[in-house]
Specification:
Blueprint lengths: L1 H39 L4 E5 L2 H14 L11 E3 L4 H11 L6 H7 L5 E6 L5 H13 L2 E6 L5 H5 L2 E4 L5 H34 L12
Length: 211
Amino acid sequence: MTLATGVAHCDDLMKALEGFREYAAPVVRRWGGVLADRLGAGSRLLVAGNGGSAAQAQHLTAELVGRYRDDRPPYSALSLHADTSSTTAIANDYGVQEIFARQVAAHGRAGDVLMLLSTSGASANLLVASKEAGRLGMTVWALTGPAPNPLEGAADDALCVEAAAAATVQELHLVAVHMLCEAFDRRVERRTAVDGRWKNGTRPVTGGGGG
């Protein structure tokens, strides 16, 4: 019975992976480029999630503040759930639905990115945080389970994973996190190469066009 359950779990993941690459790749490639440009210019990434999604959020910020593969400068990325004193104080004084929104109000600025992770796409505290981020002029991205869902509608852009089980959604969220980090690093490498050519007095070629 244990073996059968394990095999079924793998089967579910393999089935969900079949289409994931096609619809996820353009989104995470776009996000990686934007994030590298924003963070490289001094903006920051705020990330939030509940339960297993909180772990995925913290995984992402660790890759950006530390490194994904190769050495590079650190970038500003905060997991909002990780400050347990703040989250518990806010929950106690203002209610659980405010634990992320109040931190967004404290740390977020126009031009920053807020990334929200949810398997259901219906977490009230993430929806309130999204609204607060919009008020501040931040960009909101959502990484969710199947569409349609409320968080998808509340975000500026969303990657909605098509999988029946929450566990499978979370596993593909981790894949998306790693794909995002790879796209981020590629963009950083290109920016570094271009900046280096400018500093050396060689104007980089940016593409066609004339006039």
